[in-house]
Amino acid sequence: MASVLLSSLCFPSDDAVIGFIMLIESADDTALDNPVVVEDLAMFLARAVVDEVLAPQHLEEIGTQFSGADSIGRKVLQMAKSSLKARLSGERILRCWGGGGTGSPGWAIEDVKDKVGRLLEEFESGGDIREACRCIKDLSMPFFHHEVVKKTLVAIIEKKNEKLWGLLDQCFSSGLITTYQMMKGFGRVAESLEDLALDVPDAEKQFTQHVERAKLAGWLDSSFCLTKPGPARA
């Protein structure tokens, strides 16, 4: 609930960074009552990155405050980074406190994936773009919008459906899907290209073209490359 609250409050990132630094600085006292404080703080940090409360580069900023090799702060940062680099890290971190791990009570990750799949099918079969955007917004899971990007891109590659590209364009231009979520979604598709090519032989060629098109549209940062990304993206 605390993680969901942080995501909902939309604090300025500078304030969030200061708050986490203060929290880690008090870890020695917290450890008296909570022996696994390092693990818990690391999970709060990782979850904050997944929820976009913090950007990945903020972990480096926080890390500059804890230079000692044996400090609790250094251990927390190392564990948080390791969690974020793990395969399928996003889904695991969303479940880190137990339960469904989402901001919507009773919704497991698989439920959300199913909802995304159904809304895309409805949109393809003649649905209205504004209605599709409303459904995405109603998921109330902006930290999981990379799933929308991934599923939409895969459908575009499989079906060469320009209408679906228009949906992503509308989601981005309206601010519904952020560049960060676009980067994660494109990264996840890059990871699955080998499997996708089994059914769509020119999947990699199509994906390359879509990446360049997305960069021109401003969806992707220029740092995004076509080499197969590491397992950090979930």
Overview of the structural elements:
It is found in: Cytoplasm. Keywords: Cytoplasm, Nucleus, Repeat, Translation regulation. This is MI domain-containing protein. Its main location: cytoplasm. This protein is mostly helical and about 230 residues long. The chain is about 65% helix and about 0% strand. It has helices at about 1-10, 15-25, 25-30, 35-50, 55-65, 70-85, 90-95, 110-125, 130-140, 145-160, 160-175, 180-190, 195-200, 205-215. The longest helix has 16 residues, at about 110-125.
Which descriptors apply to this entry?
234 residues; mainly alpha; Serine Threonine Protein Phosphatase 5, Tetratricopeptide repeat; 2 domains; 0% strand; disordered C terminus; PDCD4; cytoplasm; repeat; nucleus; MI domain-containing protein
Layout of helices and strands, plus pairs?
Elements lengths: L1 H8 L3 H13 L1 H4 L6 H14 L5 H8 L8 H14 L3 H6 L14 H16 L4 H10 L6 H15 L2 H12 L5 H13 L1 H7 L3 H15 L17
Keywords: Cytoplasm, Nucleus, Repeat, Translation regulation
Subcellular location: Cytoplasm
Family: Belongs to the PDCD4 family.
Structure, briefly:
This protein has 234 residues and is mainly alpha-helical. The chain has helices spanning 2-9, 13-25, 27-30, 37-50, 56-63, 72-85, 89-94, 109-124, 129-138, 145-159, 162-173, 179-191, 193-199, 203-217.
Oligomer: single chain
CATH class of the largest domain: Mainly Alpha
Portion in helices: 55-70%
N-to-C SSE string, H for helix and E for strand: HHHHHHHHHHHHHH
Task: Give me the CATH fold name of the largest domain.
Answer: Serine Threonine Protein Phosphatase 5, Tetratricopeptide repeat
Strand percent estimate: under 5%
Report the major sheet: none
Q: Which residue ranges are poorly predicted, with pLDDT under 50 across at least 5 consecutive positions?
A: 99-106, 228-234
pLDDT averaged residue by residue? 82
The Rg value, from CA coordinates, equals: 19 Å
What is the number of E strands? 0
Tell me the domain tally: 2
Question: Terminal Cα separation, in Å?
Answer: 22 Å
User: What is the count of DSSP helices, taking H or I runs of 4+ residues?
Assistant: 14
User: What's the architecture of the largest domain in CATH terms?
Assistant: Alpha Horseshoe
Classification by helices and strands: mainly alpha
Shape: elongated
Subcellular location: Cytoplasm
Family: Belongs to the PDCD4 family.
Domain MI: 1-64, 111-230
Main location: cytoplasm
